């Protein structure tokens, strides 16, 4: 078992602590949180060992799990990597692209493993349809959340939209060509609602909307490609794959047939994959353990997370133009 320690015991940090404590691939050694009073409460309530400093925790483990606010990611990550520790770090990887690139360089220099917590990659509905997504040419995503002051220290793009940016980049095998976006600050000092149009060199276009001031939650994405429409509901963990093929000469009486103006006939059919339930956070943490043990590539690399951050920053920059 890999000895693991968690930096940050806030809402998400406590989830990580619980799952790591239950995992058969890790031995949870303890945690560190800068808020001493709060850290003492967490240690007392859950019986986790509390470390008095970042350095003390790093020295006691094989793997460091960073679940601190984004602004602190870089400094603690550098300490962990320079100590030769494997590193799991929550999204976004860092506050700036330059910091992310420096972490990637250090990771390679020290020969340790790193993975970033883009958890929607492990959403069972998304994992079920990824093999069906072949060459999407139009993508539409909506990620809407009710207002929560906990996430307002960063723009909605880094808080919410980055999930969909990463998901899109993972299936579109082309470089980003152009980004146009608009954002509005309604409650916070930074935009609370944003829309981005991302154009790729291969002609694919992704239209992403994120809001943290909605009356209801929604996390949906739709992928359109030649002869297929694929939808994913990340919140409900459901998916749908609708495909089209040339209609047979004598179709079944219940077949759904479409005919265009030229007289070409297409048959519509459903190719919905089975969705295997999972705990996405536990799976991402345990796949990281597998990558360390087997010396294989991590599922969400620092390089991939840096690309997602670059696009997110381009979206934010577009607000200012």
TrEMBL record:
Residues 2-118 form the Gfo/Idh/MocA-like oxidoreductase N-terminal domain. InterPro entries: Gfo/Idh/MocA-like_OxRdtase_N, Gfo/Idh/MocA_Oxidoreductases, GFO_IDH_MocA-like_dom, NAD(P)-bd_dom_sf. Pfam families: GFO_IDH_MocA, GFO_IDH_MocA_C3. Residues 155-216 form the GFO/IDH/MocA-like oxidoreductase domain. PANTHER family: BILIVERDIN REDUCTASE A (PTHR43377). This is Oxidoreductase. It comes from Mesonia maritima.
């Amino acid at each position: 078992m890999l000895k693991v320690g968690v930096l940050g015991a806030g809402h998400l940090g406590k989830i990580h602590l619980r799952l790591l404590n239950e995992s058969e691939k890790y031995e949870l050694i303890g945690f560190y949180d800068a808020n001493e009073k709060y850290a003492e409460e967490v240690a007392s309530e859950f019986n986790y060992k509390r470390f008095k400093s970042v350095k003390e925790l790093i020295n006691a483990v094989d793997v460091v799990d960073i679940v601190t606010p984004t602004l602190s990611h870089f400094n603690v990550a550098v300490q962990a990597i320079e100590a030769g520790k494997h590193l799991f770090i929550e999204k976004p990887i860092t506050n700036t692209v330059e910091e992310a690139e420096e972490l990637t360089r250090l990771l390679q220099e020290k020969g340790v493993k790193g993975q970033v917590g883009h958890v929607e990659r492990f959403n069972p509905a998304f994992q079920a349809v990824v093999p069906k997504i072949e060459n999407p040419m139009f993508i539409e995503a909506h990620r809407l959340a009710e207002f929560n002051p906990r996430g307002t220290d960063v723009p909605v793009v880094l808080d919410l939209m980055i999930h969909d940016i990463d998901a899109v980049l993972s299936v579109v095998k082309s470089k980003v060509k152009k980004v146009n976006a608009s954002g509005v600050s309604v409650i916070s000092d930074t935009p609370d609602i944003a829309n981005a149009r991302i154009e790729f060199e291969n002609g694919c276009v992704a239209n992403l909307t994120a809001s943290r001031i909605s009356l209801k939650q929604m996390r949906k994405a739709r992928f359109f490609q030649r002869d297929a429409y694929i939808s994913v509901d990340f919140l409900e963990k459901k998916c749908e794959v609708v495909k089209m093929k040339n209609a047979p000469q004598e179709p079944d009486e219940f077949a759904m047939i479409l005919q265009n103006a030229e007289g070409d006939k297409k048959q519509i059919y459903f190719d919905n994959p089975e969705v295997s339930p999972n705990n996405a956070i536990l799976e991402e943490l345990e796949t990281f353990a597998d990558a360390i043990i087997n010396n294989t590539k991590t599922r969400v690399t620092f390089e991939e997370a840096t690309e997602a951050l670059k696009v997110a920053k381009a979206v934010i920059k577009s607000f200012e133009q």
